Amino acid sequence: MRLTSKFIAHGAATALLCAAAAVWILRSGEPARATAASGEVHPVWTETDWPFGADPWGKGKAFRCKADDCGGEVQLYVRAKLGFCNCATGVADDGDLEQMGDLALIGKATPIGAGRQIIVGPMRGRSRAYRIEGNRNAALSLAFNQRCDMVAATALVGSGAPASLEPAVLAFLNSDRMLQWAEIALGL
């Protein structure tokens, strides 16, 4: 009986991930731009301490959205990477996003579907959803650039949160607060 319950639970989780991937793929035809309406959730982002050790890119900014506000716990990590972006093409495809993003901070990840183009302020880039191996969390990796400098953002989405928080994350990244931070961090 116990084996059957595990099989059903894994099957349901797989079906949910496939449904989320299908929605993501269907929406990937045009660039995503944040709007005031972010869907069912009404995120409240609170700044927290950067939880990761030192590396060549330094510390970034960390934010938390409580389960009450996002439908499940969400951690968002954002930092600038100066001189790391391809100056001519920026973050042009999923390969660029894999290389330039910050998924390594949170563990081994497997893409759920194809990435999509995003717009954050005057910057363009890409976004892609991932499944984090070894736990029930999902992640959203985003990277966008201004000339040769870029911002990498990673949202770690806990269980219970809606399948796609991309509009809510993009709305926050497009907020005056975050665009001002990006201008300072990138030296614009």
TrEMBL record:
Going by the UniProt record, its keywords in alphabetical order are: Signal
Q: What is the residue range of the signal peptide feature?
A: 1-21
Q: Does the keyword Signal apply?
A: yes
Record's protein name: Uncharacterized protein
Organism, scientific name: Bradyrhizobium japonicum
